[in-house]
Amino acid sequence: MSAIVWNWFENGLKNMMKKIPETMNTSEQILSFLRQCADAISKQTSDPILLEGAETFSQRIKSPGVKQFSPQLLPVIEQIKHIKPTPFTFNFQQIATELVWKPSPRTDEKGEQMALGIFNELFELGDIVVGLLLLDKHQSYPLHQHQPQELYLVLSGEADWRYGGSEVFKKLVPGDVIYNHPNDIHGVTAFNEVVLALYVLWK
Ligand SMILES: [Fe+2]
Question: Strand order of the sheet with strand 159-162?
Fold first, then answer.
């Protein structure tokens, strides 16, 4: 995305990304954050597959059952103070330490450099999987593949992403939305910025 589009994006989304009232209960604050992300995905793409994914995501977070959960943190969560501010991050900062963060099952890493904030631990989301990827600078989330299709919305951090069936990495910036077909090999490498991205897997 060029600098000009980025400015438009920032101005366009700033109005949408209203501050979530801290008087709301925690699960409602988290759902509000997810709904803002779902709206942003629909705004940022005209690709019918991504719009379908955003619609499925929106439906599942309308009024999901809330599970009994307690926050679970990992060392990499310390890095959230270094996340570069974008229209998405001020509400994220508000809920980050309320989430259930887990080490990635795709590495032996124990949450020092990367973590997944898994919303299925908090809500009954049916057949979709929703999470946040937090990746410290200079780290790589390993190349992997899986059957469900997947979308990502980049919330903060410039990084190189491989996605969509391509064999090369491409630089993405906050606001970018990408799609992985079933079994596309994909991954991301962070350079000088902490990366935060939302992912949704659906059938
Ligand atoms: Fe994936």
Answer: 140-144, 186-190, 159-162, 170-172
